[in-house]
Design goal:
Elements: E1 31-36, E2 41-51, H1 52-64, E3 73-84, H2 87-99, E4 108-112, H3 116-128, E5 136-139, H4 142-150
Helix pairs in contact: 2-3
């Protein structure tokens, strides 16, 4: 019998190539997730400019992963992301979550950096997400978020 090892999976979503004002090309922005079955935890990490398509894509990849369990808790790490999401797009994402309540029943921590734009988008999500059938909290510190997610 094989030893029990946490299964971890890293997936890169389809980021966009970005160019500086001088025309120099930068790498695609990477977005990845990890599923840690032993801790019953999903961690999504976003890097660079992040739009609603990136978030939808990541959600679909999580839900389609054979190691994903809807009862797992999750953390969305946006500390290295610059969010580019309109009110309409956020409303569409929250509606998507509402239509699929059984896809995620665990609690979720949203880890945000303190940029004014990201903070505004996080508050917009918090307001629109009121009444969802899951517990969602915002954090600036990963250790605090993980402590809350892993407490019994």
């Amino acid at each position: 019998m094989e030893p029990c090892v946490p299964r971890r999976r890293y997936i890169t979503s389809s980021g966009k190539c970005h160019r500086s004002p001088g025309g120099k090309r930068f790498e695609r922005m990477r977005h990845e997730y990890t599923i840690d079955s032993d801790r019953r935890l999903v961690i999504q990490r976003y890097h660079g400019k992040t739009g609603i398509k990136d978030i939808f894509s990541m959600s679909e990849k999580n839900y389609g992963d054979p190691d994903y369990d809807p009862s797992f808790n999750g953390m969305v790490d946006m500390t290295d992301a610059t969010l580019d999401i309109s009110f309409r797009e956020m409303l569409s994402f929250v509606s998507y979550i509402r239509r699929q309540p059984s896809r995620s029943t665990g609690k979720w921590a949203l880890l945000m950096n303190s940029s004014p734009a990201n903070f505004g988008i996080a508050r917009m999500f918090q307001t629109l997400a009121e009444g969802l059938q899951r517990e969602i909290r915002f954090f600036e510190d990963e250790a605090d978020a993980l402590h809350w997610l892993l407490e019994q």
